[in-house]
Amino acid sequence: MTNNRKKLAAVALSGGVDSSVTALILQKQGYEVIGITGKMVKTPNAEIICQNAQNVADKLGIKLHILDVSNKFQTKVIDYFENSYKIGKTPNPCIVCNQFIKWGEIFDHATNTLGADIFATGHYAQIKNINGIYKLYPAKDEHKDQLYFLYRLGQKELSKTVFPLYEYEKAQVRQMAYDFDLPPKSSKESQDICFIQKPNTTKKYLIDKFGTMPGDFVEISTGKKLGTHQGYYQYTIGQRKGIGIAAPYPLYVIDIDAEKNIVYLGKKEDDIRKSLVIENLNFSYPIEENEFDAMVKIRYNMHSKKAHVKILDDKAEITFYEPVNSITPGQAGVMYDINDGHLIGGGWVCW
Predict the structure, then answer these.
(1) β strands within 8-132, DSSP E
(2) Contact 54, 64 (CB under 8 A)
(3) Dist CA 112 CA 114 (whole Å)
(4) b/e map of 10-30 (b: 16 or more CB within 10 Å)?
(5) Sequence-ordered list of residues with C-beta below 8 angstroms from that of 302, at least 6 positions apart, any chain
(6) Which pLDDT tens digit goes with each residue over 229-269?
(7) What does residue 284 show for φ and ψ, rounded to 5 degrees?
(8) Rounded to an integer, what distance in angstroms lies between the CA atom of residue 39 and that of residue 50?
(9) 103, 234, 284, 290, 347 from 314: Cα distances, Å
(10) What is the pLDDT of residues 292-325, one digit of tens each?
(11) Angstrom distance (rounded) from CA 124 to CA 102
C-alpha cells in the first residue's frame, strides 16, 4: 500500500456498481483516487448519470471531474451507429465508444491533463505484463468477461490501465457495494446502448430516424417474394423473432441488401458458413506471424471457435474448423490465443 500512496488513479466513474467498487478497491490499495465522468449526450438522463457519479464520489470522499465529450460521442458513436444500419450493417457501439471515448477523450484527459499514473474502469478483464508486453486475459467471472469489447486497445492504453475487478465475480462486487453502502448498491445492470433510453428501443429509434421504407422479404434459395417489411435497417443477420412471415419452417434473416431494400430469409442451414473476412485490424501487441490458428468470436455472446487466420495487409481471412452461424457485417471478429486465451486483436466483419 505504501508504494501506491503517492500514485494518482483516475477511475472512469459512471455511477454504477462496477465503477464505484473499482474506485473503492483502488482507494483501499492506497492510491489517491479521482473520478472522471464522461458526459456523452446532452439529455436529462446524462445529468442523472453525472449526479449518480457525484454521489459516489461524495461517499468515497474523492474529487469528480466531469468531461463533456458529447460532440465526439455524436460523431464517433451515434453517427457511426446510425450510418451502419443505413448501409445494412449491424454496429457495435460499445467497442467504438471504448476506442474513441473511454480510451480516447477520457483516457487522454486523465493521463495528460490530470496527470494520472493509472486509468481504471469497471471492466471485467485482466492485464498482465509479460516480458514488457501488456496482454489482456479473461477475468475470473467468465459470465462477465469483456475482452471482446476491448480489442481496439493497444500498448499505449494497456500500459496505463488497470482492471481491479478481474479477480472478482459479479456477486462479490455487488456485495462489496452493499458492505460499504455505496449509492448504486441496488442498481440494475446498465443497458447495452446507453443513448437509447427505455421505454425506447433500437427499432423505434431507427424508425424515428429513417422513417418506414416498405420493401420485400425474399427467400434466398429461390428468389421468391415471401412478403413485405417496413425497412431493411430493422433487421440483422441471424434474426428469427419479429419477422412476421408464416412458413412451414422457422425463417431466419440470411442477408440484407440495403440499396434494394431487400431482406433475404431462409432456413437455419442457410445461415451457416465457415469463412469470413475482417478489416481495419487492430492488435493488442505486435505479432510476428501472418498465419496462425486462434480461437475466434464473431459476436460477444458466443463461445469462441477454433479457426485458421491468414493476415493480408489490413484484412484477415478467417476460416473456422467447424461452421458457424450468423456471420454479420459490422460486428467484430476477435481473435484469442489458442493456448491461454489472451486477446490477440481483431477487426470488423466485412463478409
Answers:
(1) 8-12, 32-39, 63-68, 118-120, 125-130
(2) yes
(3) 6
(4) bbbbbbbbbbbbbbbbbbebe
(5) 324
(6) 999 999 999 999 999 999 999 999 999 999 999 999 999 99
(7) -65, -25
(8) 7
(9) 22, 30, 15, 11, 9
(10) 999 999 999 899 999 999 999 899 999 999 999 9
(11) 15
Q: Are 218 and 202 in contact (CB under 8 A)?
A: no
Q: Which of 34, 29, 35, 33 is nearest to 3 (CA)?
A: 29
Closest by CA position to 91, among listed 350, 258, 298, 330: 330
| DSSP strand pairing (133-138 vs 125-130) | antiparallel
Q: Give the up-direction half-sphere exposure of residue 212: CA atoms within 13 A in the CB hemisphere.
A: 5
Whether 264 contacts 256, CB under 8 Å:
yes
CB 117 within 8 A of CB 8: yes
Peptide bond into 250 cis (omega under 30): no
How far apart are the C-alpha atoms of 308 and 289, rounded to whole Å? Answer: 12
Q: Which residues are catalytic?
A: 97, 194
Which residues share a beta bridge with 331? 329
**Could you identify the residue written with the cell 433487421?**
235
Task: Indicate the DSSP class of residue 329.
Answer: B
Residue 319 neighbours by CB distance under 10 Å: 14
- Count H helices and E strands in the chain, helices first: 9, 17
| High-pLDDT (> 90) share of the chain, % | 91
The answer to whether residues 146 and 19 touch, using CB atoms and an 8 Å cutoff, is no
